[in-house]
Request: fold
Amino acid sequence: MSGQGKGTLRKLPCGGRSVMFYQPPGPVPAGGFPLAFLCTGEDFWQELPPLLPQLEKAFAGECRPFCMAGVQPVEWTRDFAPWSAPALSCKSGPFAGGAADFFVFLTQQAMPLIRAAFPVSVQPADTALAGYSLGGMAALWQAAQDPLVGKCASVSGSLWYDGFSEWLCGRRAGLQGKEIYLSLGKSEEKVRNERMRQVGVCTRCTAALLQEQAARFVLEWNDGGHFHEVTPRQLRALQWLFAEDTSSKIQK
Reply:
């Protein structure tokens, strides 16, 4: 499956699901390409192709060329929920708490498949988890307890999720030495839902924790709300994680 960039987009069967994979153009670096695994839905992969030329232009100097992978399909309220929680409204279902099973599938089936089929690095410093919304929270949840993941991006992460802030504080040691990117839309804490309204407070608390623990960290505030420029914002996060110039270790 080819996109509009010069790199390659492929889709592979894996354990009853599919693994989407993007490999950048150009020679393979020593040790393989860095790899970002995305906790996101099908929309990302549908919107990605026309954005690839701009991303691949950044590979010329702004950031290291990196691969991207993701699993389809995903059930957001199951695969990206670390534990069960009530529904947000009468129009939605409860959170099923299946993230542990999802990441077992990722680490034991999807990742071995990717590393057997493509030239990607196995080093933690070259391995990132990234996600948007509930997927962003799930990426940070896994990164805090997985020593094989050295980078993480939580883009508009659902850090309001019941009990997550307390859980993360108790796992702060797992964040030491990692590179973490957070972002949030400026309007996201102005919603009506009482639980989701806590996202600003929870994101600031998480940022304070990461400033103490992370080797490199940034919290970026974006214009708009939760659904503003979803895919471009994820790509900007990945470019920050794999930036060529990382001299500024802690950024605000």
User: Anything to note?
Assistant: The first helix runs from residue 42 to 47.
